[in-house]
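Inputs:
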Amino acid sequence: MTAALTLTDLSKTFPVGRTLFGRSTASVKAVHPITLTVERNETLGIVGESGCGKSTLARMLVGLLEPTTGTIEIEGAALDNADPAVFGKRIQYVFQDPISSLNPRKTIRQIMEAPLKRLHGLGRAQRAERISEIFASVNLREEFLDRYPHEFSGGQAQRIGIARALAANARILILDEPVSALDVSVQAQVLNLLADLKAEFDLTYLFISHDLAVVEAVSDRIAVLYFGSMVELGPAEEVFRAPRHPYTKLLADSAPVVGRALKAPEGRETELPDPLNPPPGCAFAARCPRASERCRAEIPGLTEGAGGSAAACFHPLA
Amino acid sequence: MMAFLRLLARNRLALAGGIVMAAVVLLALVTPLLPLADPDVTDTANRFKPTFSEGALLGTDHLGRDLLSRLLWGTRLSLAVGFAAAITAATIGAAIGIVAGYFGGRIDNVIMRGVDMLMAFPYILLALAIVAALGPGLMNALIAVAAVNVPFFARNIRGITVGIAHKEFVDAARLSGLSDLRIITTEILPNVVPVIVIAMSTTIGWMILETAGLSFLGLGSQPPQADLGSMLGEARSALITNPHTSVVPGVMILVIVMAINLLGDGVRDALDPRLKSGALSRPRAATTVKRDGPVPAATGAGLLEVQDLRTEFHVKGRSYRAVGGVTLNVKPGECLGIIGESGSGKSVTALSVMGLVASPPGVITGGAVRYDGEDLIGAPYARLREMRGRNVAYIFQDPLATLHPLTRVGDQLIEAIRVHRPIGAKEGRAKAIDLLDAVRIPNAARRIDDYPHEMSGGMRQRVGIAMALANDPDIIIADEPTTALDVTVQAQILALLDDLRRSRGLAIVFITHDFGVVAQLCDRVAVMYAGRIVEEGPTAAILDTPTHPYTARLMACVPELGAGKRRLEAIPGLPPVVDRLPVGCAFADRCDRTQPDCRAGEIDLARHGARAVRCLHPVTPLREAAE
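Outputs:
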């Protein structure tokens, strides 16, 4: 069985500061080369803090950004041109802000019809049939079709966003913080819906979030990103229970948990490294209690440990 | 459309402008049907006949042509050229702007530098140059006026397009397989049209004037054809002897341009999204108070006491009961958490304390807020202002939105201190550094000169906390202060707040939607739903044995770290809209313990010891939970 998604050395560098003639004076590595395989029907959680490159990675995966290096393979077929229309049939995106991802001047029907018409060239009757099928599976009433986006609550709008992604008939969905704009009671509804759809349509998810508890609750495996690099990758039940990378441990200790006393897990006051002037070694070394000379000079690679987790660390915790 | 017209009509001046303009346009349209003399037939025997003379209502000009007829035909021509120029300029300008804004990068650069070059010339010189190159004539004047106005549209529309092109719905359209052309026409254009209309409505008057100007100089309409500008030009030589020949077209130009500008302003205001909800208004400095019931007496419970507070929003004849009788208190050194979903009224409760709810539409309709026994609701604005920041300070969710982007953080801190007491520059700086140290900003003496955008989100929120601490308040109201922050930063900020309240004896009211945060920071917690407190008590006790079904089910919705992959409990349905609240329990429709009596009438907040719950059929009986 071929993997749903294979990334090989995928990276993205943004030029910054242009001279008069358009040549860039410096560059920022938003995503360092990432090699990753996502199996069919798997949910891979991607966690990281703001600026860690998770959105850049996601936008490359759907062809909205052209990678600087590396290749993307979907179900064994390579996709090397950054053309969202080609990507769109195989991999789709669900956006963080459900309202702003819907054009305020189009009806829901127009929004839903776009992928059916443009990606699959379906006729009017087929489109109507397909839309009612999809609406039934995301628990939306068909009378919503002739309304405009502003008439919906966040939860309903996010269902519409999911329905649109399903309409493209892609087997892989990138869920970019799909519930972080929603209230907790609605958040659970949407997460459960996503779980049902995954089983029903045999989908593969990449679930991006900053909420560790949510990611843990929905994922099979979790990748932790820090400063554009994957620092840990492992089974969901292991990653936060027994973190191997010190950064993962810091994340796990920082999450507010009922019944745990409040303390700042980091004694020192630290900020992220400067992207224009990245450190030569491990990006986390300045914040890390276990950092050694080697960490400051050399970038560690991802190595597998005993529990099935891989960590990019010279001095892993387990 | 009807709503737009109604908004427009509310603006009296715009309405008057619209009526005058409609009359002028109508007159211009029916001109060929009117029994008028031929405007171009000369009759030198009857030259310079005064107004109201026999056979020529407005008199005749230097060639004896009927002025009324020339005026109407001239108006018709001037309007047609003005509108045509406006539409041409808007179409070309918008097309250029959309293409530049949508594609960006080099295309944008090349196009916009070209537009900049056009704008570098004084417009009348540019128009003269174009007409000089093309030769005089009305058509060429139209081209010149349109060309001169293209940059205005191009720049305006480009700015709007850049904003829209980066919206998520455009990405979504791309992923739906839409081509660039289709995205421009179906996604971008409909969102840009209102801006084009606004720009057109405010410039069309100018274009009519500019066309008239070119004709006045003899570069527009050619004799004998009349337009308003050429009529003025021809009458110039007789300005002293026969002023009516100049006054007649002059008055018409004045009327047209005034009417168009008034109407244009009205159209712009009516299309402005800020006006959608009503008239453009600036919120008052303090929330309006209209208490109809008696004011509750002080009980002395806590430093800050909120008693039966009611805050409503009155919008278009509807009243939204955002806060429907909330009673709370907090003691020095205590941290009270208010937890709830969006729309539960938690933020409005907090803002009502210092009269910070925007009015209109907010109105405090009942209850009291007591600071050390003194009622703040209905206190004069001067008193509220004195207390804001000094006694009760706020920390908001988004520090980037609360800090002034163009002022150094140190200066903002010093300003916050100066509002309440005079302080010298040197002393102020020292105090500001102390404050930044207190919120543990590394290198405070250096970072004091940073601008907000030079700091990370966590650092900015520390500055926000430092601002709140600037005048040593007794109470801090923190409205979701860590929601926009990363988890590692959130942990640091929470630890900081906890330290501050212990070391300074601060009372903190902490508003959040996160049970984990409440559990770690707050001594007591109040759970709000649809504008009311449904459960209140010591944090540990509530998290351990929730009694209200909403609290219990909300807690079950939240995934907890370490529990592994699983299906979450969800609460079906949505919170009720607060302008149509049901009788009885607002949660009844979503609750699985509902009985007929839940919907029968008001349910009181029942108290037992430290616990309180507003429920007839609690998950655990209150007495049992309290013990």
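Remarks. The mean pLDDT of chain B is 88. The longest strand of chain B covers residues 318-330.
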